[in-house]
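Figure 2 data, in text form.
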Amino acid sequence: MINGALMETKELGKTKEKIPALGMGTWKIGSNESEGIEALKTGIDIGMRFIDTAEMYGTEEMVGKTIEGMDDMFIATKVSPNHFRYDDVIKSCNRSLEKLKVKQIDLYQLHWPNSSIPITETMKAMEKLVDLGKIRYIGVSNFSTKEMKDAQNALKHEEIVSNQVEYSVLVRYVEKEILKFCQDNKITVIAYSPFGSGKLYGQRSNSMYDLLRNVGSKYQKTPSQVALNWLMSKDRVMAIPKAANIAHMKENIGALGWKLEDADMNKINDFLSDERPMVWSLNPLVKRTSSFWARLMEYKEMGRNMRGKTK
């Protein structure tokens, strides 16, 4: 159970576990480790005790240094799709446990679907990790509705508790099918890139930014705080914004402790964006051919190994 007097919580899947509705993402915050650690500690101090990372991010060790000696944390990480074979899943989890300096991972997620490896094999390993006490809950990331169903059907005694997807005021493709499926089946949606991968700020005069600024003036809140509050107001949705420094973290915290009125929610709901999620900037066929991502990770890993041998 996460304690935090200022923190709003939401139930994770059907688990009855309450975790912060506003967590902390760690993608691309490792360039300045000391600054990243201080930003994370700032969030933790006020109750943002949910941190999301991944073996692909290269930030697990930084998270481990941040949370060392701390109790009552909820830590989520992800296994890369090139590690979806049974033995590879187990090995990846063990590496993540070591880097995070924890005995158990709270939420272990499949980072991308990988059609080149049977989901039954991957899920068998995930359930084994639960049985061994190395992970508590199983989640997925970037999975379609069909992929979620296939993943759940591959499990014998556990349930999918979450799907981490790109979701923001600008990127709303999940509302067409994934969001309703998750809400109907009590699967938590963890929204990453809640500011549209920075596109919300790329053009300060864009109509969405203007709308958020106008709505925020009523509550004395910034566009970022309105965007986060809008997400967290959705049933079964929590957000994990990245904050690489203390100033950004403090701004994110300002999304808590207040509620958008229905009229203002509707103004944002009714805004139709043409933005596509980051992964769709590639050829859609490439994105849906999930093995592409596994192959990409394999090549990167091979490159790292080769560099290591030449040193």
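Caption note: The chain has one domain: 9-310.
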